[in-house]
Amino acid sequence: MNLLRELFETLRAFVAAVGAVTLFLVRVLGQAPRALVRPGLIVDQVHNVGALSLVIIMTCGLFVGMVLGLQGYDLLQRFGSEDALGTGATLALLKELGPVVTALLFAGRAGTALASEIGLMRATDQLTAMEMMAVDPIRRVVAPRFLGGAIAVPLLTVIFISIGIFGVQLIGVQQFGVDTAAFWSQMRASVDMNDVLEGVIKGCVFGVACSLVAVYEGYTATPTPEGVGRATTRTVVISAVLTLILDYMLTAVML
Predict the structure, then answer these.
(1) I need a surface site. Which of 62, 97, 100, 255 has the fewest CB within 10 A?
(2) CB burial of residue 172 (10 Å; 0-12, 13-18, 19+)
C-alpha cells in the first residue's frame, strides 16, 4: 500500500507540474504580442542568449564535425565508400547531432543564465515591485527572454551544422584525401530539403522547450540563494531530458 501511495503521489505531482507549466506557457504566449511592441527587448535577449553563445557553439560544432570525419572515414573505408563521408556526416548533423547538441549547449550556457537572472529578480523582490507598479513581469521580463531563446536556438543550430560540415570536410578532404568533388556532389545529391527541414523543426521545438523550462524555473524559484541554485540545476537537467524525449518523438513522427 505504501508503494502504491508513493506512486500515486508521484503521478499526481507530475500531472500538477505539467499543468502548471502549460498554464505558464499560455500566459507567456498571451503576453507575447504585447512584448513584440518593444522589439528592442527581444533583440537584446537574442544577443544575450544567442550571440554570446556563438563561441561555444562554433567550437563544439567544429570538433564534433572533426570527430565525425575521423569516425566516419574509419568506418566507410572498410567498405570502400570513403566518398560517401560527406553524405553520412551531413545527415547525422542535420537530423540528430546539430539540433540536440545545440539545445544541450544552450541549456547549459544560456538556459542557466536565464533561470538565475529571473530567479535573482524573484529573490530580490524586483518582480513583486513590478506587480505593485502595475507592470506585468510576464510581459516585461519573461516574454522577451522566452522569445529571444526561441529565436536564437534555431539560428545557433544552423551555425552549428554549418561549422560541423566544415569540420568534416577539413578531416575528410584535407587530412585523408577524399576527393573534393565527390565529397560535395554526393552530399548535394543525397541530402534534400526534407532533411534540412527536419533539423530546423527540431531546432525550433528544442528552442521553445529549453527557453520555457529556463524562464519557468527562474520565475517560480524559491526566493533564496539555495532556491535560485536549485532552479538553475533543474533547468539543465529538465532541459536535457526533455530535449532527448522530444528528439525521439519528433524522429518517430518524421520518419
Answers:
(1) 255
(2) buried
Distance CA 102, CA 154 (A): 9
pTM here is 0.91
Q: Is 177 left (phi over 0), alpha (psi -120 to 50) or beta?
A: left
Is 99:248 a contact under the CB 8 Å cutoff? Answer: no
Q: pLDDT for 166-208, tens place per residue?
A: 999 999 888 888 888 888 888 888 888 888 999 999 999 999 9
Name the residue ranges covered by the structural domains of the chain: 41-254
Residue given cell 524522429 in the structure block: 251
Q: Can you spell out the DSSP letters for 49-103?
A: HTGGGHHHHHHHHHHHHHHHHHHHHHHHGGGT-GGGHHHHHHHHIIIIIHHHHHH
Encode pLDDT of 30-85 as tens digits: 988 888 888 888 999 999 998 889 999 999 999 999 999 999 988 888 887 888 88
* Phi-psi group of 154: left, alpha or beta (phi > 0 → left; psi -120 to 50 → alpha; rest → beta): alpha
Q: Cα–Cα distance between 89 and 80 in angstroms, integer?
A: 16
Tell whether the model's pLDDT for residue 1 goes beyond 70.
no
Whether residue 116 contacts residue 232, with contact meaning beta carbons closer than 8 Å, is answered with yes
Q: What percent of the chain has pLDDT over 90?
A: 60
- Distance between CA 145 and CA 149 in Å, rounded? 6
- Here the cell at position 95 is 537530423
Contacts of 221 (CB under 8 A, 6+ apart): 115, 118, 119, 122, 123, 227, 228, 230, 231
